Amino acid sequence: MISKSCLIHHPDTADSAIKALYIGVKAQYQNGNLTLRYEVQGNIDKLLIPGIQPPSEADGLWQHTCFEAFIAVVEEAPYREFNFSPSGQWAAYSFGDYRVQKKWQASPAPAIHFARSNHQLVLTAVISETNLPYNPHNQPYRLGLTAVLETNAGEHSYWALFHPSGKPDFHHRNGFTLSLKLT
């Protein structure tokens, strides 16, 4: 199954050049993997893009330009969070409920591919089905796909499929709006 959508900037975003960016997202399940593709188009020269690093797990990626996925089984509290940096670094977290983190280690590590051209950034991340939340009844998943964009001036903008009211909160379940059924 393939699901496509686009991310919208948080209403507090002030920079008109950043607000003019387009971020398309695609989620596809195939051959035991969930592939997420984030595509940023527009004046990307204003963005601060982390330099390439050896692929590794790292905390704090959300403090710079990164792409994220929040994944839950429909009607269930537990969820997983994945952060993907253009640097090639990644992070994965498990939560039993809203912001209640549980000990967990992703295995195998997500695969990340990043490409940049004059007016486009594309980050593709592949997550093994073994890293998705436990789903014994094969219920649909709900995804919250998001991005944090850092400008060269050090300002941040927050992008999501949907922003619940208030400050940016990617963990809020109302932001998990993309349905995906693994078949």
From TrEMBL:
<protein>
    <recommendedName>
        <fullName>DOMON-like domain-containing protein</fullName>
    </recommendedName>
</protein>
